[in-house]
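Summary of Year 1 activities. Much of the first year was spent building the evaluation harness for sequence design. The harness presents a backbone, in tokenized form, and records the residue chosen at every position. We chose the following record to illustrate the format because it has been used consistently in internal testing since the harness was completed.
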């Protein structure tokens, strides 16, 4: 699922604040809060947690001719979740509407088994299109929206021991990967609770 940098900065508390092109992935009703037109041509997003960046540095430095060194590197990360994402999402957005196409890649990994360390990997790639529509009714109190996503997903899960990593034995077979077309429709609502000021003249 595509994620907004703004939403991540808010701890993903974005479902009632979604006011940009990412609204279809959170709450399409938020498109009613978009104030201006915007065209994003080549917007790239790359994110990774600190453990993943440290792991990449160690992967580049380790001696793959030494199986014990590879095993020790994996031991250093046992139990640490590794996560990285890459996406490109060109789009056109205006008040109450957005449309775009996207490519999104997500990779998760975790090392396990202190005796015979191994790296467990899970990854998926989505290629698709997305649209969203929104409208406001009831004196601007209720916003509702609908979003649709049509995408093709390829996913894979695999585990590699230190020996397999040192010998570059990566058995990646496209024919055995999970893959298929998906269609998702989401409906969202935002209700703005009116505020009242109680004035008690004396």
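For this record, the design step produced the sequence shown next.
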């Amino acid at each position: 699922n595509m994620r907004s940098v703004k939403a991540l900065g808010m701890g993903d508390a974005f479902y009632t604040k979604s006011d940009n092109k990412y609204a279809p992935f959170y709450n399409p009703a938020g498109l009613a809060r978009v104030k201006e037109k915007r065209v994003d041509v080549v917007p790239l997003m790359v994110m990774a947690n600190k453990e993943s960046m440290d792991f990449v540095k160690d992967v580049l430095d380790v001696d793959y001719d030494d199986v014990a060194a590879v095993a020790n590197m994996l031991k250093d990360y046992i139990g640490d979740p590794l996560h990285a994402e890459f996406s490109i999402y060109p789009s056109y957005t205006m008040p109450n509407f957005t449309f775009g196409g996207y490519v999104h890649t997500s990779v998760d990994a975790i090392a396990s088994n202190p005796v015979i360390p191994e790296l467990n990997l899970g990854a998926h790639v989505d290629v698709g299109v997305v649209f969203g529509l929104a409208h406001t009714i009831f004196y601007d109190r209720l916003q509702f929206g609908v979003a649709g996503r049509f995408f093709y997903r390829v996913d894979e899960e695999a585990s590699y021991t230190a020996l397999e990593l040192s010998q570059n034995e990566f058995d990646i077979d496209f024919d055995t990967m999970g893959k298929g077309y998906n269609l998702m429709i989401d409906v969202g609502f935002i209700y703005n609770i009116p505020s009242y000021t109680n004035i008690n003249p004396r």
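The longest helix spans residues 50-61. Quantitative recovery figures across the full test set are reported in Table 2.
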